[in-house]
Amino acid sequence: MDKKYISCLVNDKVGVCAISLVLDKRHVRNGGKYPIALRFTIDRKRLYYPLGDKYTEKEFDAICRAKNTGRRSNIKSEKETNFECKMLLEQTFKSYVDIVQDLDKTSKLSLNMIMTRLTGKNEEDSFLLVWEDIINNRSVGTADSYTTAKKSFIKYVGVISGFNVSKSTIEKWIKGMENDGFTKTTIGIYLRACRVVWNECTQRGFLSKKEYPFGKDKSLITIPVGSTRKKEYLNVEQMTELYQVFINKKYPESWRKSYIEKVHFSLGLFLVQYLCNGFNLADAARLRYNDYYYISGKQSFQFMRYKTKDRSENNSEVVIPIIEPLRIILSEIAAPEERGDWYFLLY
Predict the structure, then answer these.
(1) Domains of the chain: which residue ranges?
(2) pTM value?
(3) Looking at residue 303, what DSSP letter applies?
């Protein structure tokens, strides 16, 4: 009767996943040796991840049974060598258990997800596909910016497979952009898009938080901030001058009539933004002749600030009194008054 060998050195369980360190005996190897591997089991399905070393069943059994002899000698016995090997394998096993535990905190465990984390390869998803997915779920302007950032990434890094992306990959991209004269502002915009993609990949469990490349620490990638424009602004006198240009239609006689009409509307809209606490075009485009406008006796209008509507406690509600200068401008550029219709026709 053949001797029964120990087939598993150590095992553990993380969530729904059972993890064991075993000999992968699915295929016969030359010399009777098999690769030592981590075996991940979820719902009776298994994933084997080889660690590199190969042993016969007898050698692996000896490692599994090895104990500390307590001897100290320059000449190590076979038992002492087996015990040291056992300790190293158990440490390796613990490091992989930690990886799966980290993965289990972010999403539901699956063998495909574990393989992605261990190898960076994934037949169904990839870093670039997640990037594309984010683009498809963004507003038009942001989607365009993310698309341009992705094209730049591919230009300097190439089409990466799976999730084989790291800090060095991002640094290679940055170096390429710097060599081609990209401004810090542009590089910062592109890197912020990439950071959003990385965070999404982490959220889905494809990348580890421990590998996160962005931060203010010197060892991490610091996203550059473009030059500030806080000192570039129009003062009250200059805004008043523009208002007089609008009121008196002081435009060059050489301009075509159709062009003057467009400039007049654009200048009026710019002045409206100024008089409406700096609301942006997204707010202007959504402004309607709503109930509030009529309840106030046509003395003010109300809108929800679009940019901060999802992160403001008061839902970003803004009420603007229609003072006389604003009323004059609106009489020139606002759409015909009709309850529920748009205030401005932006086309």
Answers:
(1) 8-119, 127-211, 236-333
(2) 0.49
(3) E
